[in-house]
Amino acid sequence: SQKIEQNSEALNIQEGKTATLTCNYTNYSPAYLQWYRQDPGRGPVFLLLIRENEKEKRKERLKVTFDTTLKQSLFHITASQPADSATYLCALTSTGGSQGNLIFGKGTKLSVKP
Amino acid sequence: DTGVSQDPRHKITKRGQNVTFRCDPISEHNRLYWYRQTLGQGPEFLTYFQNEAQLEKSRLLSDRFSAERPKGSFSTLEIQRTEQGDSAMYLCASRGTSGRALYEQYFGPGTRLTVT
Asked: Is the dihedral of CA A41, A43, A48, A52 positive or negative?
């Protein structure tokens, strides 16, 4: 069955450093992959989407890479700030996903210390 | 606020009672999803509507769960005879048919259900 793993449950870094989060998937060939941010008690908020034919995508301080050979996506936040502290979720559209329902990883909780 | 709204935000109920949640999607979005999220887990898909048609249901959606979207606008999720295992955050999301909304799902704030 399709499986998504976000290897770290929690990541603690110092302000100003680059945070790197990992998402691995198995038994799947997604057309695209998405990253969401979730704050406590709130719904996820879309951040970035990367397609299978794209190696890298950037948005301000965010960068996502997508390696379909390794079946892995990396999510980077450069010059991290305490306001970046949140849980970050990786998501794929399920197989036969013309309906678009997402399969999420468990998320990585990022804490940026001042 | 033109985002996705959900009501109530919190619901505490006793085991065996029925509960109903409401979701109002972004008005121009014809696709609506329900997810369930428990502590420390990512959201898990429950069901999907395109307009008023319920096109997909997860195996997680037992017979005690029913969802409707009668006019293709708001949706309701009902849980009958609640069990303690139903305690979770219930999230609604909507998606459009063009531009960024073709892929991006817009989530509501969720309804946190506690079954005692």
From this structure: positive
Arithmetic mean of pLDDT over chain A: 91
Closest partner residue to A107 among B42, B48, B50, by Cβ? Answer: B42
Q: What is the DSSP letter of B104?
A: P
| Separation in Å, CA of B109 to nearest CA in chain A | 5
Whether B100 shows a pLDDT value over 90: the answer reads no
CA distance B114 to B94: 24
Q: Please tell me which of the candidates B40, B48, B108 has its beta carbon nearest to residue A101.
A: B48
* A96 has a pLDDT exceeding 60: no
* Chain B neighbors of A44, CB-CB under 8 A: 43, 91, 105, 107
Say yes or no to pLDDT of A31 above 90: no
